[in-house]
Q: What sequence folds into this?
């Protein structure tokens, strides 16, 4: 199937379910009746190649640097999906184009960290703790958001991952599980009840508090998600780990149990060798990403009015391809924002250019937007944290001028 | 949630207060003999009691047992050795990167299984507790690049032999371990001018021999553009003085300069794509003028900044080589802030999350008086009144929970230990996979969360069956 056909097909279908005007979004948001605004954070682990996800096809140097892996200009069968005459989406990201046309998808290019490390682990750590260069930070920025806003239930922060990601670690109660059905105490011969009982009776305040949170969250979730889950509006999630994780997030969001921040991760982005172009390794990853995100927005339907999905990756990849048809670790990268509150249809950030003197260290896309400016705007404008709480949520950071990512209703 | 913090603190205070009332009746400094004290000691200095352990300790006396544990060489541990899973041999050479990575993964898995088996079955329980403590103190993360290749070697040769030795020796062994050099990037750290010097040397050599320059080496050198402060910072902040130890950013830079040239021996110096050398050579050899090699550790003078350095007020004269780094290790290991930092952490591990300041000060004084004799420092802590007064004040880590559940039931370990690794992962403690250099936090709040408790309850059912599940999965068993 060519990318153009993918685009036509999904474009037509998307118009039906997502073809609502911003005015409708405003009404839906107003009608949400105290419902929490939702942030879904997606981490692309391994350093996603932002220059091939959000292609600067208007930049001549792009094609000089990437003779065999560059994505062709729009127009041909396998060219980029034109967004604004300069940037385009990778052809396999076409399922997201209707969201751009509806003004719900925005991107920020040349975004990243002030720290110049090219170590995956350090850079992920810095992005998840939101303290670049400071390794001793113990908690993650989303957990600190929950701390700063005095979250009351563990259901406000859920990571659909096996282990609590760094982003969500910290003192505020959160939940991490690979799926709703995994979050249950096994009950062999009534042992679950005996266990619950032992925690109810104990004088050990710390343990009984957490156990109470666990049993409460379990009961609420099990009741609210009873039965098998059926995605709405014909949403068709890929049968991939990432697709399944996003489906679980939709399931919890729609259960109305107070979910405020959710987290999912996607892997396989470290494309040092044979990353391919419009087809191949990276194309496969982007296909999974785009189809999963498209399914999530479709499934959430009206809920997208007060939901923002944020994609991020620890750093970008070198501007030029390497000797193995891949790309090595770089610096600046692209983030995407999807949702009703987003002032979409625009690529934000100052484009630094790809000429040698414009590159960072002469080799990488430079960083012109600190990723913490994006986080800061999300937690204040979208999630509604008081500006005064920012130093707690993103310590050691003074936000610059707001990027202006959000609609003003 | 500050509420949790307050609750935790109240509970600690409660435990310590009831304890002190008990202790007041005993002569200060004497090791109590009662059954509760024995159970407490087994929970803290060992991974919990096995059936019969309490009776055995009643018979030989608790203070005798503690002395034995402090001198593990005298304890017969042949039964453990028979149980240890086979460790993969490091191949003499790797054919490619993939094979190297595969070996790293296998090695970490085998080491993880061995750690569980040791925790459950070793008779040298305090040694196992301390190996866990010191590995965590000098944490390296198996998931970062090539760290996994050296991680088994790191635990066996840098950590384990020194846990009852001198702190300076332990510190020195970690500083030279390829695992640490890789994990905290010191292998890439170079005097910017020296890096250029070395590149020039290599160009000359290549021209002389008429061979093209080694692309891998060129790549490594391109990354080695200058000073990397990562190790210098963590050495001061985490390994020795502690975050409030009174050092400055300039001290970090000076320390980093002293360690330039402390690197990992290159896979092969002669040609590209040569197989890697085996790790077996541990003897010290001199490789070129001023160069030093110990195992896979290499001091490369050409990368070293030999200018004068001032570290924490001490002058290190210009013209030094590997001795610059050794001098830094001497200075920081004998700094009073280090004595306090290490004493605090050991007391936090063995006594309570907020250990009594008087005990920390006594242990720090012992550290200073004995030039960092770790056996003496540990002894000061684990025979103190404060130690015996802190029953139940700590929450078990997932490893302690798992090992103590197996020990208390007396059940055979299912399989060879590997089958339990997923359980540790579910409880949030994948072995050797703690990413930050801080290691796992050793306080109750880290380990008590809704998700973690659900995991513990399910694992209790799996390990102990429905009858005992409520006990092992219940609140009392989560404490030690």
A:
């Amino acid at each position: 199937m060519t990318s153009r056909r993918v685009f036509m097909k999904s474009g037509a279908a998307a118009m039906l379910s997502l073809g609502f005007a911003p005015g409708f979004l405003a009404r839906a948001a107003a009608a949400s009746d105290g419902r929490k605004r939702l942030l879904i954070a997606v981490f692309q682990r391994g350093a996603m190649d932002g220059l091939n996800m959000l292609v600067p096809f208007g930049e001549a140097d792009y094609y000089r640097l990437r003779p065999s892996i560059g994505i062709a200009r729009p127009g041909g069968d396998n060219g980029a999906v034109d967004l604004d005459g300069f940037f385009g989406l990778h052809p396999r990201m076409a399922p997201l184009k209707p969201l751009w046309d509806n003004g719900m998808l925005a991107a920020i290019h040349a975004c990243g960290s002030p720290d110049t490390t090219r170590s995956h682990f350090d850079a992920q750590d810095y992005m998840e703790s939101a303290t670049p260069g400071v390794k001793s930070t113990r908690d993650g920025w989303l957990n600190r958001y929950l701390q700063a806003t005095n979250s009351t239930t563990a259901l406000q922060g859920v990571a659909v991952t096996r282990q609590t990601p760094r982003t969500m670690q910290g003192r505020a109660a959160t939940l991490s599980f690979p799926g709703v059905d995994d979050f249950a105490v096994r009950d062999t011969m009534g042992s679950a009840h005996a266990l619950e009982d032992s925690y109810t009776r104990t004088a050990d305040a710390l343990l009984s508090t957490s156990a109470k949170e666990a049993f409460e969250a379990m009961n609420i979730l099990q009741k609210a998600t009873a039965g098998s889950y059926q995605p709405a509006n014909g949403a068709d999630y890929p049968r991939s780990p990432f697709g399944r994780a996003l489906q679980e997030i939709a399931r919890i969001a729609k259960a109305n149990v107070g979910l405020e921040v959710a987290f999912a991760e996607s892997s396989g982005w470290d494309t040092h060798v044979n990353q391919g172009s419009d087809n191949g390794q990276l194309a496969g990853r982007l296909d999974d990403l785009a189809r999963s995100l498209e399914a999530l927005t479709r499934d959430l339907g009206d809920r997208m009015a007060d939901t923002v999905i944020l994609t991020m990756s620890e750093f970008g990849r070198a501007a030029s391809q390497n000797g193995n048809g891949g790309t090595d670790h770089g610096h600046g990268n692209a983030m995407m924002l999807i949702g009703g509150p987003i002032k979409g249809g625009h690529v934000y950030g100052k484009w630094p250019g790809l000429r040698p003197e414009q590159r960072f260290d002469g080799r990488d896309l430079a960083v012109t937007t600190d990723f913490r400016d994006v986080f800061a705007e999300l937690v204040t404008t979208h999630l509604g944290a008081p500006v005064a709480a920012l130093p707690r949520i993103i310590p050691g950071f003074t936000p610059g001028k707001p990027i202006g990512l959000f609609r003003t209703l | 949630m500050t509420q949790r913090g307050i609750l935790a603190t109240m509970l600690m205070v409660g435990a310590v207060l009831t304890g002190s009332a008990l202790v007041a009746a005993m002569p200060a400094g004497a090791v109590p003999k009662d059954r509760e004290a024995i159970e407490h000691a087994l929970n803290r200095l060992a991974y919990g009691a096995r059936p019969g352990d309490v009776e055995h300790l009643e018979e030989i006396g608790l203070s005798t047992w503690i002395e034995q544990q402090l001198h593990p060489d005298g304890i017969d541990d042949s039964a453990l050795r028979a149980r240890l899973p086979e460790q993969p041999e490091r191949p003499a050479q790797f054919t490619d990167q993939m094979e190297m990575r595969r070996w790293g993964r296998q090695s970490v898995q085998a080491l993880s299984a061995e750690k569980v088996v040791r925790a459950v079955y070793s008779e040298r329980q305090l040694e196992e507790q301390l190996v866990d403590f010191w590995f965590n103190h000098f944490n390296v993360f198996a998931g970062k690049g090539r760290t996994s290749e050296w991680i088994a070697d790191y635990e066996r040769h840098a950590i384990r032999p020194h846990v009852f030795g001198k702190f300076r020796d332990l510190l020195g062994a970690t500083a030279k371990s390829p695992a640490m050099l890789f994990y905290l990037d010191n292998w890439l750290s170079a005097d910017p001018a020296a890096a250029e010097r070395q590149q020039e040397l290599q160009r000359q050599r290549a021209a002389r021999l008429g061979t093209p320059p080694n692309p891998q080496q060129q790549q490594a050198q391109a990354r080695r553009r200058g000073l990397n402060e990562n190790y210098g910072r963590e050495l001061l902040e985490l390994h020795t003085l502690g975050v409030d130890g009174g050092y400055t950013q300039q001290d970090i830079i000076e320390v980093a300069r002293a360690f330039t040239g402390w690197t990992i021996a290159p896979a092969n110096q002669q040609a590209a794509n040569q197989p890697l050398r085996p790790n077996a050579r541990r003897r010290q050899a001199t490789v070129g003028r001023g160069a030093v090699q110990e195992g896979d550790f290499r001091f490369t003078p050409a990368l070293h900044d030999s200018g004068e350095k001032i570290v924490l007020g001490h002058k290190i004269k210009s013209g030094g080589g590997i001795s610059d780094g050794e001098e830094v290790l001497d200075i920081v290991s004998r700094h009073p802030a280090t004595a306090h930092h290490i004493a605090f952490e050991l007391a936090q591990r063995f006594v309570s999350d907020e250990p009594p300041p008087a005990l920390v000060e006594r242990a720090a004084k012992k550290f200073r008086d004995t030039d960092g004799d770790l056996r003496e420092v540990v002894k000061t802590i684990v025979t103190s009144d404060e130690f015996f007064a802190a029953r139940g004040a700590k929450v078990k880590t997932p490893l302690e929970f798992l090992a103590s559940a197996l020990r208390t039931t007396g059940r055979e370990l299912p399989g060879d230990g590997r089958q339990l690794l997923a359980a540790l992962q579910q409880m949030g403690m994948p072995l050797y996979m703690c990413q930050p250099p801080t290691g796992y936090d050793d306080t109750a709040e880290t380990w008590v969360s809704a998700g973690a408790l659900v995991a513990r309850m399910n694992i209790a059912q799996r390990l102990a069956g429905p009858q005992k599940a409520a006990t092992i999965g219940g609140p009392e068993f989560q404490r030690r």
Q: What stands out?
A: Chain A touches chain B through 49 residues (CB under 8 Å). Chain A has one domain: 3-182+234-393. Chain A has 13 helices and twelve strands.
